[in-house]
Amino acid sequence: MNNTAIQTNNLVKTIPQAGRDLQILRGISLHIDKGESVAITGMSGSGKSTLLGLLAGLDLPTSGTVQLFGQSLDGLDEDQRAALRLGKVGFVFQSFHLLENLTALENVMLPLELNPPTHPGLPPQGGREQRAREALQQVGLGERLSHFPNQLSGGEQQRVALARAFVTRPQILFADEPTGNLDRATGHEISDLLFALQEQVQTTLVLVTHDETLAARCQRHYRMEEGRLA
Amino acid sequence: MKHLLLHWQQRWRMPELRLLLLALMVSVTVVTTVGFFTSRVENAMQAQARQLLGGDLVLSSARPLDQTYLQRAQQLGLATAETITFPSMVSGGDKLQLSQLKVVSRTYPLQGELKTAVVPGAAEQVVSGQLPASGEIWAEARLFAELGVQPGAQVQLGKSTFTLARVLTQEPDRSSNLFQLAPVVLMNLEDLPATGLLTPASRASFNQLFAGEGNAVKQLKTALTPLLKPTERIRTLDEDLSSVQQTLQRSGRFLGLATLLSVVLAGAAVVLTSTSLMRRELPGVAVLKAMGMSRRQVLQDQAFSLLLTALLAAVIGIGLGLLLQFVLAAWLSQFVGKDLPAPSLLPALNGLLTAVVLLLGFALPQLLRLVDTSPMQILQGALQRPRQSVWVMLASLLLAVFGLLWLQASDLKLAAMLLAGLLVGIGLFWALARLALRLMQTLGRKWQSRWLPSLGRSRRAVLLVVVFATGLFSLLLLTTVRTDLLDRWQEALPADAPDHFLINIQPTEVNALEQFFAERKIKTRLYPMVRGRLVAVNGQPLDPDKFENPRAQRLAEREFNLSSFAELPVSNALLQGQWFERGVTGFSIEKGIGETLGFGMGDQLTFDIAGQRLTDTVSSVREVRWDSMQPNFFVIAAPGSLGEMPSTFITSIHLGEQKLLVTELIRQFPSVTAIDVGAIVGQVRSLVGQVSMAVQGIFVFTLIAGVVVLVAALQSQKAERRREIAILKSLGAGRAELQRRIWGEFLLLGGLAGLLAGLLALTAGNLFGYYLFDLDLKLNLLPLLIGGVAGSVLVGVTGYWNLRGLLDVPPMSLLKA
């Protein structure tokens, strides 16, 4: 059985800027196993987030290949890539990105609703709300189900985001500076929660951060400098 | 489906979606209210006109009509009646009198009612289902006076003797020959052959009247049209417009204008709100796409949400429209004298279409951009709106605006003109706003103001001024045009507007009649009148058949009332040439008749007046206010030029409560015919009142639409404002300082927008008034003042109200949201 979650080969990404091509990624090859936790660190502008986007299939490389769950993303259009992520990939962002007009519970329900009713690994339609409630209870927000994001603190918002990311029990979780907008103490709480959930669900974790302490908690650590893995 | 509905409910929590619904609802309500209302009024007008015509459709000919037409109509299930009219002498006692004999079949009249009186001057009664019995005739009071007989007298018509049984006071189709000189005599068709009066040489008019279900009437008209012989023609409802109809038509145009402006304003609100909505949804869509949502799902979700909003707005709007038109119609039914016919359903469809076009053109392109949102953006921090060609956006906007204008105006050329006007207006506002704001920057620097220069620099200020100015412009335009229109109507129909026409006044009676009026302090002016037919233009004989327009054909066939006098009546305005002062001679013509029959200044006209020819050139063109209730003439000849032509005189007088004076007058001047137009005057006056109320009702909608635009514009900048206030607060700005800034900004921008709007409304109002409503140009600086003050207050209050919530929130939470 194939144990590879992500595999890239010589990834290059250039974007046109001021009439010239700016090379952001300069040939990245990496390999991440299923259930592994991997940190990608680097300075601002080193290309971490761009790499994360390519690994998740949010964007396509200028050259090189990405394989997600053993399938090459090469030649897939946006919708085909989205279908590949559906139900199998979770995200946690630096600025939480909860939907303002939805309650905590509704935000967590979102990824469940995107999946067809018969999706394997997800509860049937009637049980989905219960799953979302449990996810919020797990992150300690069982009493704040009907609160809107602007009624929650930053730490609480990121907990909702974690519940939202793990509610589908994804195979891979991509986290982009998950503690970047939080104070140190709250940041610790969130990272504890993140790793606890990861272990529980046995999710592959790809974590982008410039926080070395956080990176140190991962099993492996890639460092980026000027678009290359150091 | 359940999910889509749930998502819509969740979106409903955003003020932008509620604002979008409000904007759509306002436009649907105004479109349907006006639509339902005008459709009912139009139906009522048609019903009224049918009564005047005596049927739904009338076929007239100078020769006996073909029986195949009749059979055709009967096959279609239509009711038919026949009338034959021709002049004939009646002898009674020892006198002879020329009469207009009207011979009618048993089924006459198909529409409207006959009214008679037992003796001349007695109260009239409706006679339904009755006609003169065999051996009887009914005649107008004038015949009794001329012959010196009473009801029951025996009179001779051709070879037959008849009993003059009743006084005929009204028959439905009389108005088409209001000024006919001979009194009408009504006779049963069965009695006609025995009289031996009708011969092939008789100058008779044969009419076949048809009435029945609308579609069958239309079918008949379509079937008959190609079969008609040159001497036959179909008379329809819209050939001649009465004063009431003219007033209604004018008010319909005004309501249309108000509707258009409301819809365009609502459109602006839709653009603004959907832009904010898109901005608000952007991060969510990016996150969802990262989670695996497909483009199709995004599209489905957004399209469903929009369509549901449009549908909801349409249903509520149509419901409100139906309700409101009932109120309007209740006012109007007083004047129509009976319930208005039911409205057609077309306006409801129109309302739905308006909502859909507004969304498709204004909101959908914005939301489609969401479909193209890259999920990658969510990792890049700054969320950018997906790029879309400006041209695509612009084209879609223009197309939608044009579609709406077309939908409302139902006139391609007018819609194109309005669109061009709108674009020029917005461009002008943009340019003027930039100019004014730049001036503000310069002045601000000079006065060392802290915030004036930055206000003048901001692009947001330009947008706000343009949006406010457009909204205020619509309101001001409506106010000025409305005020002008009402003033003009009131002027046209003062309380002492004439209520009786006196016709058939003999030249020998003029002095005595003038004295009669002078003694009773009744102001009036007698106009000579001769009847003549236009026979040649520039020496070329006039052929009625060469005109395609039925109205032109009829005008070319019929006799006109010509007059001749020295003083231009107040209800006339000279458009071209010179009036008959300082020795000017020739004809003065009414603008419309010249346009219809194709002649104008300098053309030579020849009239046949009782066998004598009168030729002269057109020396002036007049505009005539037909609703003035004054005697008006298509053609007026220079004083003295009618010479010895056989003429009678005509005048109109205001009697008000002294109605009995008519009886006295007729007793002294038996040959004079008095026509009571008081009823029509009353109708027009009360109608003006009702319509002005209706207009005010619609005006309220435009105001609401204007405020919705304001709020939409403010809402679209709220996030930016939120951040700005947070920064200012964190820098130490107090509540009072922020309040001052907000008030200052909105009062100033509102005032500026109001001034610009006033300036443009003044210009446009004059142009509209001049071209659409026949009003004179005038410089009224009031709109500038009203615009400035109203703009300041309206924008100041709305702006402060919209942002006041942000003042109490701590700066941290402002940054967080």
Task: Please render the helix and strand layout as text.
The complex is a heterodimer of chains A (230) and B (817).
Chain A (H helix, E strand, L loop, with lengths): L3 E14 L2 E9 L2 E3 L3 E6 L5 H8 L7 E6 L2 E2 L5 H8 L3 E4 L11 H11 L13 H11 L15 H13 L5 E5 L7 H18 L2 E6 L2 H5 L3 E6 L2 E2 L1
Parallel strand pairs in A: 4-9, 4-10, 7-8, 8-9
Antiparallel strand pairs in A: 1-2, 1-3, 1-5, 5-6, 10-11
Chain B lengths: L1 H10 L3 H39 L3 E5 L5 H9 L3 E14 L2 E10 L9 E4 L7 E3 L8 E4 L1 H7 L6 E4 L2 E11 L13 E5 L3 H4 L9 E7 L2 H11 L7 E4 L7 H49 L3 H42 L9 H26 L18 H20 L2 H35 L5 H6 L1 H34 L7 E6 L4 H10 L7 E11 L2 E2 L8 H8 L2 E5 L7 E6 L9 E4 H7 L6 E6 L2 E13 L10 E3 L10 E6 L7 H8 L4 E4 L1 H39 L1 H13 L4 H37 L10 H26 L3 H6 L1
Parallel strand pairs in B: 3-9, 6-8, 15-20, 17-19
Antiparallel strand pairs in B: 1-10, 1-11, 2-3, 2-7, 2-10, 4-5, 4-8, 6-9, 7-8, 12-21, 12-22, 13-14, 13-15, 13-18, 13-21, 16-19, 17-20, 18-19
Task: Describe the 3D structure.
The complex is a heterodimer of chains A (230) and B (817). In chain A, a hairpin with a 2-residue loop joins strand 5 and strand 6. Chain A has 230 residues and is α/β, with parallel strands linked by helices. Chain A has a six-stranded mixed β-sheet. Helices cover 32% and strands 27% of the residues of chain A. With 817 residues, chain B is α+β, with helices and mostly antiparallel strands. Chain B has three domains: 424 residues, no CATH class; 165 residues, no CATH class; 177 residues, no CATH class. Chain B has a six-stranded mixed β-barrel. In chain B, strand 7 and strand 8 form a beta hairpin. In chain B, 41% of the residues are buried. The chains are: A alpha/beta (230), B alpha+beta (817). Chains A and B meet through helix 1, helix 2, strand 7 and helix 3 of A and helix 1, helix 7 and helix 8 of B.
